[in-house]
Design brief:
Elements (H helix, E strand, L loop, with lengths): L1 E3 L12 E7 L8 E6 L5 E5 L4 E3 L3 H4 L5 E7 L8 E6 L12 E6 L2 E4 L15 E7 L8 E10 L1 E5 L5 E3 L1 H4 L4 E10 L7 E7 L4 E5 L5 E3 L1 H4 L8 E7 L7 E9 L2 E5 L5 E3 L9 E9 L8 E6 L5 E6 L2 E5 L11 E7 L8 E6 L8 E5 L5 E7 L11 E6 L2 E6 L14 E6 L6 E5 L5 E5 L6 E4 L5
Length: about 450
């Protein structure tokens, strides 16, 4: 499936890396690949037409911190995404540190947590993943942080530019060894939360429509305290209710299907559920055949790829992306070069320095369409649900808020169309419930969808 193109990363050197996010860091309308550096510098990899080049300025690079995970979202409604970085609670020399929330002011970046008015709010507790969520459908996001032995936290920007942890107000301030976070409309139109935990049950927070949540994991069948969870991702198999794929560390992988009554049941077959040292998991249509593939990024063993074949998930050859000796910590997808095919970025770290890896799928003539919904402020509408109807089939994608585990995918809904070269309709549903439909959009392009005016 994949061909190694890591030579396209300029100056690519071994290092310790963790999470990956895809966002427009420099504000030019094209996304970059952001990589969290562990005791080294963070990277901002930009495609210059020929290769990926690191353009991180010293503030974003934040050299010497132990960055674990990274995500982007527009928290202040200025149309440009801020960047949240979860850092380990202490750097190698023992100095206490805290998370970063970088905002851009013209030509410079500033850490909002470093400002005097926000110093008391900054997270200094152990944490893992971070994800973006628009819990009230306002087009302004908060950053949800999975505490590691501490409560979930949800940082939003309130009056006079002050950052506030509203997790208690939202009803999600539960304590767990948090790992993966998934923000998607699973139980209704508003954005729900799946928080995957280690050494304890998972959480399923149902958004009640007013920005507060009710925890329903035990009632709906997603608690599953028997596995050490890692990544979580929504999966569209039939164009109907979204499934939830949860990766685990040295335990069975889970694929939860939602039943008509609202409960979830694990439907993973023997091959898919095989125990592995899984970290990040990705659902994306790499070959543009109209069905997503499932990629498991593993630590110290081979990566695995599953495709939908004969109405079941079947393991297929991963090609160069197998990486049997890779210490996989994070992975993300993006159409880096604008050719309509998704590249795969895999990073490594924790126990051994290894360079980031870049892979392309084998070329084919399958058709495609990419949809980018925007908030009322013009920023990527992370959490929006996009439905594409073509050739008698319906496909659904959630614009990613995060995270497969420590990571965040590109803010675009990517649809492979196979041999179908015409789309009947695209529907975009924003977190506020507003719906827009576009009939017969042209294929082979990025369709930008503005949020309708009030």
């Amino acid at each position: 499936m994949f061909v190694d193109c890591s030579q396209l990363i300029a100056g690519n050197r071994p290092g310790l890396y963790n999470g990956v996010s895809v966002a427009d860091a420099d504000g030019d309308g094209r996304c970059e690949v952001l990589v969290a550096g562990d005791a080294t510098a963070n990277l901002v990899l930009k495609w210059d037409g020929d290769r990926l080049v690191d353009i991180a300025d010293p503030v974003l690079a934040d050299a010497g911190r132990r960055a674990l995970s990274i995500a982007a979202a527009d928290v202040d409604g200025d149309g440009r995404e801020e960047i949240y970085v979860v850092n380990a609670a202490a750097v190698p020399d023992g100095e206490e540190t805290c998370d970063r929330l970088f905002a851009n002011f013209g030509e410079r970046w500033l850490d909002l947590f470093s400002q005097a008015e926000n110093a008391g709010a900054a997270n200094r507790l152990p944490a893992r993943s971070v994800a973006a969520i628009d819990r009230e459908g306002r087009g302004r996001y908060g950053f949800l942080v999975a505490g590691d032995g501490s409560p979930l936290r949800l940082f939003e920007l309130h009056r006079r530019g002050r950052l506030v942890d509203v997790a208690e107000e939202a009803g999600i301030d539960l304590i767990a060894h948090g790992r993966g976070l998934l923000c998607a409309p699973l139980l209704g139109d508003a954005t729900d939360i799946v928080a995957v935990n280690e050494a304890g049950p998972n959480f399923l927070f149902h958004n009640l429509g007013d920005g507060t949540f009710e925890e329903l994991a035990g009632e709906r069948g997603l608690a599953d305290s028997r596995i050490a969870g890692r990544g979580a991702v929504p999966v569209d198999a039939d164009g109907e209710a979204l499934q939830v794929l949860i990766a685990s560390w040295e335990g069975p992988q889970r694929l939860y299907q939602q039943r008509s009554g609202g409960g979830f049941v694990d439907i993973a077959n023997a091959d898919l559920s095989m125990p592995a040292r899984a970290r990040t998991v990705i659902a994306a249509d790499f070959d543009n055949d109209g069905h997503v593939e499932l990629f498991f990024n593993a630590f110290g063993e081979r990566n695995r790829l599953f495709a939908w074949r004969d109405d079941q998930w079947t393991e297929v050859e991963c090609g160069d992306a197998t990486l049997p000796r890779g210490f996989g910590t994070g992975a993300a997808v993006a159409d880096i070069d604008g050719d309509g095919r998704l590249e795969l970025i895999v990073v490594h770290g924790e126990t051994a320095a290894q360079p980031p890896a870049l892979f392309r799928p084998m070329p084919n003539k399958n058709a495609w369409l990419r949809v980018q919904p925007l908030t009322p402020y013009g920023a990527p509408a992370r959490g929006a649900l996009v439905t594409c109807t073509a050739g008698g089939r319906r496909q659904r994608r959630v614009v990613c808020g995060g995270s497969g585990y420590l990571c965040q995918m590109e803010p675009v809904a990517h649809f492979g169309l196979g041999t179908v070269h015409a789309v009947d309709q695209v529907e975009v549903r924003w977190p506020d419930g507003v719906v827009v439909t576009i009939d017969q959009p042209p294929v082979g392009r990025v369709l930008t969808v503005q949020h309708p005016p009030e």
